[in-house]
Amino acid sequence: MPDVYDEELDNTSGPLLGESNDTTRSSPSVTKVKLTGYRLLNMAVIFTFGMVKAVLTYLGQSAAPTTIDWVAGVVLTLAISWSKQS
After folding, report:
1. Which superkingdom does the taxonomy of this entry point to (predicted)?
2. Which residues contact 33 (CB under 8 A, 6 or more apart)?
3. pLDDT at 22 over 80
4. Is the pLDDT of residue 72 over 80?
């Protein structure tokens, strides 16, 4: 008598992660992300604040990077909240 339980668990013939059963496509699928002004601004702000914090920490400052975190967090949260309301 065949064991159905073993057949359900033995799924080694399926595609691996990132592979597809579809043989009509020869190139792998790539998720395209739409680059918007908001995303560019977000990346620029994160990069800028990160660099400023890194430089201040390297120069031996301890309070300035934390203050930058708090002020930037409040200002950016208010700005984003305000921009979504209008």
Report:
1. Eukaryota
2. 39
3. no
4. yes
Return d(Cα 1, Cα 51) in angstroms, integer.
Answer: 67
Give the count of beta carbons closer than 10 Å to the beta carbon of residue 56.
Answer: 17
Q: What is the DSSP string of 9-72?
A: H--TTSPPTT--S--S--SPP-PPPP--HHHHHHHHHHHHHHHHHHHHHHTT-SHHHHHHHHHH
- Could you tell me the residue ranges of all domains in the chain? 33-86
What are the contacts of 44-49 at 24+ separation with CB within 8 A? Answer: 45/72, 45/76
Arithmetic mean of pLDDT, 13-39: 69
**Exposed/middle/buried for residue 23 (C-beta within 10 Å: 0-12, 13-18, 19+):** exposed
